[in-house]
Structure formats: structure tokens, C-alpha cells
Automatic annotation (TrEMBL):
UniProt GO BP: lipid metabolic process; methylation
Family designation: Belongs to the CFA/CMAS family.
Organism: Streptomyces kanasensis
Membrane-spanning ranges: none
UniProt keyword annotation of Lipid metabolism present: yes
Xref: CDD domains: AdoMet_MTases
Key words of the record: Lipid metabolism, Methyltransferase, S-adenosyl-L-methionine, Transferase
The keyword Methyltransferase belongs to this UniProt entry's keyword annotation: yes
Protein name as annotated: Methyltransferase
Length: 269
């Protein structure tokens, strides 16, 4: 696994020592961090341990401030466009065709989705998200880019059982910057069910915040995993996960895994 120049995979952001050093280097970020920690504590108390309810609250609050920032940190249109294009170009480089049928998990306000929708045949894009607020922004993105005739589906969900979707339908499933905000049980639930909706030969790409050190989380908003943890989780559900080396070359702090169904057993006719 080559080291990415863009990820700091040994850093443990949950350690007090890291936080103090960070505060000294960036004193202007201390007050916003304390405000965010207070808001998150209130949202966590209100959601009584239900992560999806908690994160939906985070998204509602962030989206009200800036939909661009809600899906990716910096509130800049340029960055929103650039990260969407990076996701799109990567998948097209890996052979995404108009006839593919795509499920985008955590589609947000269609940062990449509007490009997928424009590329795919009408009705071939399905976006799901836990946040109704960001899905309203997604609808605005559709209108802004004049994509009404592409007939995409946009659906709010409260879990990742994918129970309302058909068997063996999607050739591409995509989740960018979603598992970087997910505790392991949410990823586990997704991997337990995604195999059912994947078409034969289809794949599921997802990004994650990679650590080479101790797995940790910050404010239950950002989660850092070792690659082998997620590969093992996929294996537990009969899926194969492959680390995407070429994604590491792109200017993005997260890593990417590609999950595929089990290879057919040649002994079985
Ligand atoms: C950082 S944003 C990224 C959005 C989009 N993938 C993109 O790249 O612009 C994360 C999105 O995932 C959604 N999300 C988080 N956890 C989710 C879950 N368990 N199921 C579905 N969506 C989720 C959030 O509401 C948010 O819209």
C-alpha cells in the first residue's frame, strides 16, 4: 500500500497532545471547535445513542449554514466542484458507462451526483441519504443543472439495510466520504446488505479515513479505521475488498476500497 502524500495516516486526532499542539498552531480555530463540540454534545444527548439520528442533526445544522460546507468542510464553490469532478473522473476512468445503474449512498447535495446523473441514462441514478435537509439541497442542484429529464431517484433513509431496493440491480454502488463519518456498526450493516443489490460483476467503492495507528474517532463526526478492519468486515459478509492504489495519487485525504461479490466457484455448475 503506497503512502499517500495527502493523508496523515499515523496522526491520532483524538489524543489530548495532538489537540493542544493543533490549538497552538491554529489559535483561530479554538473557539469554532469549542462551539462545535458543545453543539455536538447537545445533539448526542438528544439522539440518545442513535448515531443516525445524531448525524442527521449535524447535517441539519451544517446545511442551514452552508450546503457546500456540509458535504465537505470548506464553504467554497470551487472546492465543491473540484471534489465532485474528482469522484466522477475516477469512476469514468474505471469504465463508468451511461448504461450502468448506480446507487449513491450518502449522496449529499449531489456534489458528484449531478455529474453522474448527466452521464447516466435516465432513471439509472439512485441517491439515498439520511438527511432530508441535504436532499432538499440535492433537488436544488438538479434544478440548477437542468437535469429534470434524467429522472434520478432521491430517497431519505434511516438505515443501510437497503431493504426497499431490488436484488442484483446496481452495477456501481458508491459512497464518498460517508464511512469517514460512520461508526463500525453502520459500515457493518451496509456491507451485510450491499451484496444483495449488487448486479453480477458490479462493485461498491467507498472512501474512508485511514489510520495506520490506533483506530479512533473525533466528536463522533470523524472516524479513522485501519484498512484491514474494513477488509475483514467485507470478508465476514462474503465480499472481497481491494485497496485502490490509484486513488491515493489524487489530492484527497481519504483512501478508497472497492468491494466485489464473491468469485463464482468454478466447481459449481
Ligand atoms: C461528507 S458528505 C458527502 C456527500 C457526497 N457523498 C459527496 O461526496 O458530496 C456525507 C453524506 O453522507 C450522509 N450520510 C452519513 N451517514 C449516512 C448513512 N449512514 N446513510 C446514508 N447517508 C449517510 C450525510 O447525510 C451526508 O450527506
Amino acid at each position: 500500500m503506497p503512502p499517500s502524500p495527502f493523508s496523515r495516516s499515523w496522526t491520532d486526532r483524538s489524543r489530548p497532545g495532538y489537540k493542544v499542539r493543533y490549538a497552538v498552531r491554529h489559535p483561530e480555530r479554538v473557539v469554532p471547535y469549542v462551539r462545535r463540540a458543545g453543539r455536538d454534545l447537545w445533539l448526542r444527548l438528544r439522539s440518545r445513542g442513535d448515531h443516525v439520528a445524531y448525524y442527521r442533526g449535524v447535517m441539519a445544522s451544517d446545511t442551514a449554514r452552508s450546503p457546500e460546507a456540509a458535504v465537505g468542510g470548506a464553504p467554497s464553490r470551487e472546492r465543491w466542484l473540484a471534489i465532485g469532478r474528482m469522484q466522477f473522473d475516477y469512476l469514468v476512468g474505471h469504465g463508468l458507462r451511461p448504461e450502468d445503474r448506480m446507487l449513491e449512498i450518502g449522496c449529499g447535495n449531489l456534489r458528484a451526483g449531478w455529474r453522474f446523473i448527466r452521464h447516466l441514462e435516465p432513471g439509472h441514478y439512485y441517491g439515498i441519504d439520511i438527511s432530508p435537509d441535504i436532499l432538499i439541497e440535492a433537488k436544488r442542484t438538479l434544478v440548477r443543472y437542468g437535469l429534470q429529464d434524467r429522472m434520478p431517484y432521491l430517497t431519505p433513509v434511516d438505515d443501510l439495510t437497503l431493504d426497499f431496493l431490488p436484488d442484483a440491480h446496481f452495477t456501481v454502488v458508491h459512497a464518498h466520504s460517508v464511512f469517514s463519518h460512520s461508526p463500525l456498526e453502520v459500515i457493518d450493516e451496509c456491507l451485510a446488505h450491499v451484496g444483495r443489490v449488487l448486479a453480477p460483476g458490479g462493485f461498491f467503492d467507498f472512501t474512508f479515513d485511514r489510520t495506520e495507528g490506533r483506530e479512533h474517532q473525533v466528536l463522533r463526526e470523524d472516524f479513522y479505521y485501519r484498512t484491514e478492519t474494513l477488509v475483514g468486515l467485507a470478508r465476514k459478509h462474503g465480499l472481497r475488498a481491494r485497496f485502490m492504489d490509484d486513488w491515493e495519487l489524487l489530492p484527497h485525504g481519504q483512501s478508497k476500497l472497492r468491494v466485489t461479490g464473491p468469485e463464482p466457484d468454478p466447481a459449481v455448475p
